[in-house]
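Regression test case RT-17, inverse folding.

Input:
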């Protein structure tokens, strides 16, 4: 090996050889990130990683045969992920490495949320040229938006919002844009007296929830249904709390519509507590220095024609809806704010 290195240095010169290696490694960081993500997606989406998480080892050839998958493709994926240190292989047996376990657990939602917006990235050239339009030719995967967001929100948004609900002694909660019900199911686990109903405009999301509820409905205390929050059904049960997490920003192209929605909720439900969690716009200069996951999040929203409001903009919307902020927590470092309103 040393002899080969010396030959390269003699041919290219030491300075050029070092520069080439340094630049190659820098580029490989981005290439490897893309390849690794695509391979990780493939195993995440077909259930292989979930099964692997339950077992110490899996015979991957047996798994491929059982699922009628292509053996040579699975072999390539496993060999690559083993090579970069996310899996460990011994013969046909495979398990997750410590790094694999880590990214499968806490930041799993990042991969699921990115998968939801993969159609935008697959058509990025056409979006840039104007050959295709988001909302007409391209759309995100709504189910994975719900799953990925729900998993990520367990890190801070949902715990903060649940605590606000519990601190005010609320027992009957209506969640607007409930996604995969992660927020509501957490409330039901925390308090055995709470009854929750979630609505979502996505049929795909409600179908997903229906399957979830077949496994656990918390004694009938948790239900979901497909509905438009701008035209709520007349047969909703009595509620003392209305919640919404990362729901309203999708309508920020018309802030007055959100104002009127909040006014309508107040008129219909009276002195109900509203607990709202929303993205708060972060300074691009600050993000360029700190490079948090908000960079990707802003990109997702920009590509899908969504807007992110500032904390001050949300306060203005609440004020125009004649709602008083009784409790507020804004976390600038993650670009998220939480408001309890009456």
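Golden output:
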């Amino acid at each position: 090996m040393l002899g080969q290195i010396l030959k390269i240095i003699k041919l290219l010169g030491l300075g050029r050889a070092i520069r080439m290696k340094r630049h190659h490694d820098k580029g490989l960081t981005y290439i490897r990130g893309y390849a690794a993500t695509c391979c990780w997606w493939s195993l995440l989406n077909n259930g292989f990683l979930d099964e692997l998480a339950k077992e110490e080892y899996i015979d991957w050839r047996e798994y491929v045969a059982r699922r009628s998958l292509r053996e040579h493709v699975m072999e390539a994926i496993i060999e690559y992920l083993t090579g970069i240190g996310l899996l460990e292989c011994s013969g046909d047996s495979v398990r997750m490495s410590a790094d694999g376990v880590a990214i499968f657990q806490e930041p799993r939602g990042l991969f699921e949320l990115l998968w939801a917006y993969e159609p935008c990235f697959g058509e990025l050239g056409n979006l840039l040229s104007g050959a295709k339009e988001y909302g007409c030719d391209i759309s995100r995967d709504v189910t994975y938006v719900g799953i990925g967001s729900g998993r990520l929100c367990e890190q801070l948004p949902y715990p903060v919002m649940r605590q606000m609900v519990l601190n005010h002694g609320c027992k009957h909660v209506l969640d607007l844009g409930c996604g995969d019900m992660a927020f509501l199911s957490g409330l039901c686990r925390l308090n055995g007296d709470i009854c929750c109903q979630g609505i979502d405009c996505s049929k795909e999301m409600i179908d997903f929830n229906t399957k979830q509820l077949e496994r656990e409905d918390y004694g009938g205390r948790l239900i979901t249904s497909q509905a438009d929050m701008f035209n709520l059904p007349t047969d909703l049960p009595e509620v003392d709390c209305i919640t919404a997490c990362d729901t309203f920003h999708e309508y920020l192209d018309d802030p007055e519509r959100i104002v009127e929605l909040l006014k309508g909720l107040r008129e219909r439900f009276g002195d109900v507590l509203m607990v709202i969690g929303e993205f708060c716009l972060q300074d691009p200069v600050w993000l360029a220095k700190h490079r948090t996951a908000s960079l990707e999040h802003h990109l997702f929203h920009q590509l899908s024609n969504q807007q992110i409001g500032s904390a001050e903009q949300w306060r203005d919307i609440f004020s125009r809806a004649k709602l008083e902020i009784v409790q507020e927590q804004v976390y600038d470092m993650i670009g998220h704010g939480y408001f309890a309103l009456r």
